[in-house]
Specification:
Blueprint (H helix, E strand, L loop, with lengths): L1 E6 L6 H10 L5 E3 H4 L9 H10 L15 H12 L4 E5 L14 E6 L3 H11 L5 H9 L4 H12 L6 E5 L4 H16 L5 H8 L1 H31 L2
Parallel strand pairs: 1-3, 1-4, 2-3, 4-5
Helix pairs in contact: 1-8, 5-6, 7-10, 9-10
């Protein structure tokens, strides 16, 4: 099963892409924003057993305060057993939290400039002043940096990263998403999917390799960026 990290920035349209992936392409979505509100009591034997069994294989199983996230557990285990070829991990701060390292692919919903974000944010939240909206946009990692990181760590010959442009209509966005999904799905919805499903040890080895490769490529990219800054 492919774990696809989905991210973007404020007012780039990530939620719309998440909806398209779910409704148009029948992909299960693990929504970090929604999951953080669904918790259970800590300290029961069942809690300990679930954490022991699922913590390594289920991203987002625990909230920051240590409580169990039932929705993540249910979504992940159900879709693993049902043989879905991919699951989407929808996280606004995917790179900032380093959750991209566990993903087999990453999608960044992008726009051409911060001005597009600013205009959409002001249209959506009309109580904001332009200055307040600009501060919100500036408070996050820039969309340009997210696109660059996606391309350098997951893109290129790996073919596991894509920036989805969202400057046009919803229909244009749907077309862009379909192109990306079809590219990721090629070769992953057949025997390979079922082999990983039937052989957890193989799936674990593949996951470990993905984690190591993602970490290494990220470190190389960060060192390269630091070198460029040092030469300025």
């Amino acid at each position: 099963m492919l774990l696809i990290g989905l991210t973007g920035s404020i007012s780039t349209g990530k939620s719309t892409v998440s909806m398209i992936l779910s409704k148009d392409h029948s992909l299960p979505i693990i929504d970090a924003d929604k999951l953080a509100r669904k918790v259970v009591e800590v300290g029961t034997p069942g809690y300990s057993s679930i954490v022991s069994h699922f913590s390594e294989s289920t991203p987002g199983l625990l909230n920051q305060d240590g409580t169990l996230n039932r929705a993540v557990l249910a979504d992940f285990s159900y879709h693993y057993l049902s043989g879905a070829w991919a699951v989407v991990l929808d996280v606004p701060l995917l790179f900032e939290s380093s959750l991209d390292l566990i993903c087999g692919a990453v999608l960044v919903v992008s726009v051409s400039s911060p001005e597009v974000q600013l205009g959409r944010l002001l249209a959506r939240d009309d109580h904001l002043t332009r200055e307040d909206a600009a501060k919100r946009v500036a408070s996050q990692m820039s969309i340009q940096e997210k696109v660059e990181r996606c391309d350098m760590v997951f893109g290129g010959t790996r073919g596991r990263g894509a920036a989805i442009p969202n400057d046009g209509s919803v229909e244009e966005l749907r077309e862009e998403v379909s192109i990306v999904v079809n590219g990721l799905k090629a070769g992953r919805d057949g025997w390979w999917k079922w082999m990983l499903w039937g052989l957890p040890s193989v799936a674990g080895a593949v996951g470990a390799r993905v984690l190591a490769e993602n970490w290494w490529r990220r470190e190389c990219w960060l060192r390269e960026k630091e070198g460029v800054k040092a030469n300025l």
